[in-house]
Amino acid sequence: MTNKHQSEVHRLEENLQLLKLTCIKEQYRPAADKAARQNWDHLGYLARLVQAEADARHDRSIQRRIRMARFPGIKTMENFDWTWPTKINRPAIQNLFRLGFMKDKANIIILGGVGLGKSHIATALGYSACLEKHSVLFATTIDVINTLSAAQAAHKLKTELKKYVSPELLILDELGYLPIDKQGADLLFQVISQRYEQKSTILTTNRAFKKWPEVFNNDSTLTSAMLDRLLHHAETILIEGKSYRMKDQVQEQ
């Protein structure tokens, strides 16, 4: 390789690094060798390099969205046991994975007892949304309230609220497992209210709607306002049965 050639290669790699075309930088040499063997023309060689860069950026974008979603773990429906619940509308759930509800800015309420896969389904829907390049955030309802309470005390509520209002899909997990005081209920209502008809929310709960006042400090007015915004454009998925985590003990009886 001549000094002139070495200089050109060095300048090429510096420019690729400057433009953050990392995939092209890694692949242009082996691709050039392959192009020579298979008689690609210049346009074909360039097209393959650009496609490889675009694919790499797409993959990085999806992985970044998955990290930002803060899932407790990656879930899909491939290993979901449809036979365990005594009542579950499989076609309705599978239809949700078309993500039409997000286009409609609608909500999903997944209602059922402990250990029936509510969080699994919600997480799998969130993961599917990430794969389709939507912004997603997963959080337990209590964590949201605690975070917003701390932000309010520090006079940073507006900034913190934006984190829960901005994502195209917000997953609020485990509503009803712990009671919520008036301050917490008011803060959660702000999230629901600001997302109403603007963004989609998936909420999992073990409490029937008629028992929600018990969750929200017996504040029937706030509960009605919360339900009004959640259910106006929503699909409710009801799951019945015994906890899957107790499956082995149940089967042994």
Automatic annotation (TrEMBL):
Residues 104-238 form the AAA+ ATPase domain. The keyword Nucleotide-binding applies. CDD domains: AAA. GO terms for biological process: DNA replication. The keyword Phosphoprotein does not apply. GO terms for molecular function: ATP binding. Keywords: ATP-binding, Nucleotide-binding. InterPro entries: AAA+_ATPase, DNAC/IstB-like, IstB, IstB_ATP-bd, P-loop_NTPase. Belongs to the IS21/IS1162 putative ATP-binding protein family. This is IstB domain protein ATP-binding protein. It comes from Desulfonatronospira thiodismutans ASO3-1. The lineage of its organism: Bacteria, Pseudomonadati, Thermodesulfobacteriota, Desulfovibrionia, Desulfovibrionales.
